[in-house]
Amino acid sequence: MTHLTLYNTRTRAKAPFVPLDPANVRAYLCGPTVYDRAHIGNARNVVIFDVLIRLLRRLYPKVTYVRNITDVDDKINVRAKERGVSIEEVTAGPIRWYHEDMGALYTLPPDIEPRATAHIPEIIEIINKLILNGHAYEAEGHVLFSVSSDPEYGKFSGRTLDELIAGARVDVAPYKREAGDFVLWKPSTPDLPGWESPWGRGRPGWHIECSAMSWRHLGENFDIHGGGDDLIFPHHENEIAQSCCAFPGSHFANVWVHNRMLLVNGEKMSKSLGNFLVLHEVLEKAPGEAVRLMLMRAHYRQTLDFSDAGLMEARKELDRFYRALELHHGVEPAKTVPEEVMDPLLDDLNTPGALAGLHALADQAIAGDAQAAAEMRAAGDVLGLLNMTPEVWFAGGIDDAVKALAESRVAARKAKDFAESDRIRDLLLKDHGVIIEDGLGGTYKLRKA
RNA sequence: GGUCCGGUGGCAGAGUGGUGAUGCAGCGGACUGCAAAUCCGCGAAUGUGGGUUCGAUUCCCGCCCGGACCUCCA
What keywords are annotated for this sequence in UniProt (predicted)? Predict the structure, then answer.
């Protein structure tokens, strides 16, 4: 297989990926709303999209990857009010954490990381177009999108307007003409952040910022739009409605890539169950690369159960990969990604299949094949794995005192004082969490347990 | 209720209309002072009942079970 195939939520089918402009593939990922630490679900989303971006960069000369930051929303406003600070002060920390946490997972930064607050003029411009087109109306200081004005509305997420209205679970605001109408712009009271607009001082609704930022940075039409599958409705349905109605004749994103939600130890992650896994805390328990591999162990369109046991297995898999690389010290990455890894990835990002391919390469490398080791490095580049040397992976952070202790065991072994030798080995493991592996001729290696 | 997805060895998890990947765990052996790692080998699975077919885990239908979404959650 030499061509990338992706499942497209819009068509509910897999199809060969055909870029609008092969000289510049344009992709957009719905980024974080920055009011708190990122959780493990955010991480899956970003890691999967990262693999897609890395793969696209192997296939096309240029890829423009845009991932927004939503830095104005009601949750942010609530926190700002609670603390008596500006929304900038609320979002600064979460933005920094987000970059740190995603960096720890070896995800590449986006080429452009636009912020909602820096795109208010674009937001206002789109809303203006929608009003002029008859797709939006003003009511009591709000501007609302009229879903019945868009015959395409609901098609993306596979629902009808009747269903939407019948199924509405929330109280319908009195100023809405129809229950399904959603807010594009809402008024701000003096104590809330706001921007001047033709409809008075206010702030954007939830969905409009993605329409504005993708338009500004990628154009009316672009190639790929990603996100968690919980965003299919209403967020993406509404983005499509806004953008396509504001720019008649456009189709917005060509291909929609949605990852499934994940479970935590078999249960849905939710605050009420108390199993909400904050990425930062997971990273304290396991190396970032192990967390990343764990997130790639299931296909992105399958439910993934993020368990402690799975995390440990992910670490052991990496141990095996690095052991294979250790035998071929300093090997450079091969120029091309071997097909046993590339083919599964080209088939709708089959990361478990790619990992199986990586294990097959590890078998060969362990058997002495240096080319296989070089190919492992190339595969690691596209998967975002094997980012360090085996030495750092196994022994990084082991301090000198522990190393000296291990060294003291050499003499004991040489004198065949195995009681002492074993005592030191136990000590290393129990007190310092370090495993010692003996090699030939009195050599040994240390690794973190 | 509506829409959609899934049920594969002990666990995790792919693929496939024709003797079911891969990893972890387990078992036997080699190696080792003993371990660890590595190597060789072993056992072990397609929820259930029908249908289509020469042949179904794969396609179709029913049933059972689990999950997701249905207005601010990635």
Answer: Aminoacyl-tRNA synthetase, ATP-binding, Cytoplasm, Ligase, Metal-binding, Nucleotide-binding, Protein biosynthesis, Zinc
d(CA A147, CA A86): 34
Instruction: State the residue range of the domain holding A310.
Output: 288-393
CA angle A121, A37, A217 (to 5 degrees): 30
The residues, ordered by sequence, that sit 6+ positions from A57 with a Cβ below 8 Å of its Cβ are A63
* Closest residue, CA to C1' of B23: A317
Q: What is the four-CA torsion angle of A299, A304, A309, A315, rounded to 10 degrees?
A: 40
Quick: pLDDT tens for A36-61. Answer: 999 999 999 999 999 999 999 999 99
Give chain A's domain count. Answer: 3
Interatomic CA–C1' length for residue A54 and nucleotide B72, angstroms: 31
Q: What 3-state DSSP class applies to A238?
A: helix
Residue A282 lies in a domain: no
A193 touches strand B (CB under 7 A): no
**Interatomic CA distance for residues A247 and A28, integer angstroms:** 18
A423 beta carbon < 7 A from strand B?
A: no
Q: Give ∠ CA A404-A408-A409 in degrees, rounded to 5.
A: 125
Nearest amino-acid residue to B36, taking CA and C1': A437
CA A303, C1' B49: Å apart? 28
Note the strand B nucleotides within 7 A of protein beta carbons. 1-6, 11-15, 21-25, 32-39, 67-74
Residue numbers 100-159 of A with CB closer than 7 A to any atom of strand B: 147, 157-159
**Which of the listed residues A393, A414, A440 is the one where a domain comes to its end?**
A393
CATH of the domain at A41: 3.40.50.620
Give yes or no: residues A317 and A232 share one domain. Answer: no
pLDDT digits (tens, 9 = 90+) for A223-252: 999 999 989 989 999 999 999 999 999 999
